Amino acid sequence: MVVGKHGNNYNPPHTHNELIIEGLEEALRLNKDPAVAAKLQGLVEMAEGLESYLIKMSPEETPLQKAIREETFGGDLGKRYKDETGNKFETAKINLRDAAQFEKMIVEIGKFSRILEIGLFTGYTAALFCSIPTVSQVTSLEIDPFSVKYVRSRLSGTEEGKKLRIIEGPALESLKTLKEQGETYDVAFIDADKENYLNYYKFIMDNNLVGSGGLIIADNTLFKGQMYPTPHGSMGQVAADFNNYVAKDDRVTQVILQLLDGVSLIRRK
Questions:
Q1: pTM value?
Q2: Domain, as residue range, for 27
Q3: Whole-number Å distance between alpha carbons of 165 and 11
Q4: Are residues 220 and 241 in the same domain?
């Protein structure tokens, strides 16, 4: 996930704060009362300031992270992707500094060693996880051959690259292979196709890929607010089904943070 026009000018609004800003700006355009306009303008400035302030107060990126982010948004990578695949390069798939640093801190506090990542994209979050001293290995599952090729090339010869294992193919098939190999992880980070979030979660839990005391971190779980007050939009029911299932699963405890468009921390009991 990544901040849109009110943050780094990368993508259309999609986080909660951005959507609120967009609504306030529309109300400001329609308003005819100067007193109301002044109040609305103050709220817009407050919300816009929050986006930038949170990023500013976050720890700095690693040099490799910074390089990956700049290349992801630099234009050439997107052009190469479109030329090779014929598809649009969706920069909104990349994590953002404040969210990624929060996830890094969780891993550091837990002194976790083995991380499973579902959804690699350009390797921004994988590179961050690999930079943590206590982390011995990050296993990333990615279906897109272009992403796999880019990340392998980008991390080749780096210290982070020594810790990264990429498995190419559909994630559910890769999860079955990991189960057969007897793999287990301290943390699973889910940031791939939203339609399969619940399938990924169930497989990880039902097959003990993350054991007692381990964490599942799921990104984008407040997807544009489409799951409340009632599910709506393209992903509303998908997000609602995932969040509701986890909330009722007595094997875990869950908290959803209003960080960008939602981060769920799910701890296995």
A1: 0.90
A2: 16-56
A3: 29
A4: yes
